[in-house]
Each structure stands twice: as structure tokens, then as C-alpha cells.
Amino acid sequence: MPHDFTTYISDEELWEYIDGGLGQQRRLQIAKVLAEDATEALRAEAMRLENERLRSAAQATVVEPVPDQMASILHEKRDQIRKQRQSQSAARRGGFTAAIVICRSDI
Questions:
Q1: Is residue 2 part of a domain?
Q2: Considering the domain boundaries, does residue 103 fall inside one?
Q3: Same domain assignment for residues 106 and 81
Q4: CA distance linking residue 36 with residue 28, whole number of Å
Q5: What are the backbone dihedrals phi and psi of residue 65, each rounded to the nearest 5 degrees, phi first?
Q6: Do residues 55 and 72 both lie within one domain?
Q7: What is the rounded distance in angstroms from the CA atom of residue 35 to the CA atom of residue 1?
Q8: How many helices (H) and strands (E) does the chain have?
Q9: Contact (CB, 8 A) for 6 and 29
Q10: Tens digits of per-residue pLDDT, 6-29?
């Protein structure tokens, strides 16, 4: 049986529906399909359970503080990168200024 927009539910739409997204009209259409089609309802329930397991696993992840020595290395690297970017930016501005001076001297 061919699906039309009101009865066909893509995986992306179903994920959005489960997460509470989509517009009110589309949410109502999907709710109607799920109420009338046991296969689609089972698919939605399986996706909801998977979503719940993923959320639980993410919440169970232990976040440990970064060791002081590693944090120090990261801060040093960040500072080096900032200095490099500043130098590159200054070099570009200097090159642009030199180009203007050269062009003006030709006038």
C-alpha cells in the first residue's frame, strides 16, 4: 500500500516525535498512525526504549577532573596557539600595509 504524507513516518520524524519535536499538526498525524497501526506503534516503542537506554548510559558516564599536569600542558598549548594566531594576523596586516605603501609610491 503506498504511503501518503499523513501515514508515512520516516525514522527522522519518529525520533523527533519521541523527543517531543515536530509541529502540532504533524504530531497529531503521527499519533493517529501509531494508534491505528500496531507495527508502527511497536517501531515507535522500540525507538523510545533505545532512546531511554542511550540517555541513561550518557547520564551514568563519570566525569573526572582533568589532572593538574595535563591541564597545565593544555593551557600552555592554548597560549602558544593564541600567540601564533596573533603573529599571523599581525604579519597579514603588515603585508597589507606594505602593499599600500608600495602602491602609493607608484603614484
A1: no
A2: yes
A3: yes
A4: 12
A5: -70, 150
A6: no
A7: 18
A8: 4, 0
A9: yes
A10: 678 899 999 999 989 899 999 999
